[in-house]
Give the backbone structure.
Amino acid sequence: MADEAGGGRGGHISQVERKLGAWELLWRVGAVRKTLIILVLAGAWQLYATYLNNPLLFPTLTDTLEALYRRTMDGTLPARMWTTLQILVSGYVIGTLLAAVLTVLAINTRIGTDFLETMTAMFNPLPAISLLPLALIWFGLGPASLVFVLIHSVLWAVALNTHTGFTSVSQTLRMVGANYGLRGLPYVTKILIPAAFPSILTGLKIGWAFAWRTLIAAELVFGVSSGQGGLGWFIFENRNLLRIPDVFAGLLTVIIIGLIVENVIFQTIERNTIARWGMKG
C-alpha cells in the first residue's frame, strides 16, 4: 500500500513537473490567442463575402485589403488618419487634464467633491454626439467643434473613475502620507495616484473608447475640417460614391487603430505600472 501511495504521489509529482510542449507554451501567450481569433474572423469574413457574392453589399477581405493598400499608397488614408488623430489627441489630452484638475479639487475640498459629483451626474449620461448642434453654433465647422465634443466624451469618464479610485485608497496608505507630512498635490501624486492607478487607467481606457467612437461619428456627420475630412468623412464620401471596398477599408483602419491603442499602448502602460507593482491579480 505504501508503494502504491508513493507511486501515486510520484506519478502526481511527475505530472506536475512535466515540461510543456511548444504549442502549450504558445497558447499561454495572449498575443498568440488574440491573433488566432483575428485570423478566424478574417477567414469567416472572406468565406461569407465569397458566398454572398455581392461586392456592393459586403466585399471580400481581399478586396478590402486591396482597397486599403491602394488608398494608403496614394496618400489618401494616411492624410485622413493624421487629421483624425490630431483632433483626437487634442481633445483627449485636454479632457484628461481637466479631469485631473477637477479630481484634485474634489479630493482636497468638500465643495470640489460636491461640484464633481453634481457635474458628473448631469453630464456623464449626456451623449457627446448630442452636443454637435451646439458645437457648430459656438465654434463653427472646424476642429474646435470636434475637440469640444471630444472633451465632453473624455472628461466625465476619466474624472469619475479617478475620483472613485482615490476614494477607494485604504486608510492605512492615507495615514502613511499624513505621517510623512504630505498635503495637497504631493499627497495626490505620491500616495493617491499610485494606489488608485488601476481605476485611473480604466478611466483612461473608457475615455479613449468614448472619444474614438464620438470622433468617427462626428466626422460622419460634418467631418470636413480645414478643407479636409478625417477617417469618418472618408467612409462617408466613399459610401456616397458606392466604393464599398473603400468604405470597408476605412472601417478596417478604424479597427486597426483601436487594436493598436488597446493592445500596444495601454497594455504597455499596464505592464510597466500595475503588473510591475503587483496590483493585478
Summary: The chain has two domains: 2-45, 59-275. The radius of gyration is 25 Å. DSSP finds twelve helices and two strands in the chain. The CA atoms of residues 177 and 191 lie 6 Å apart.
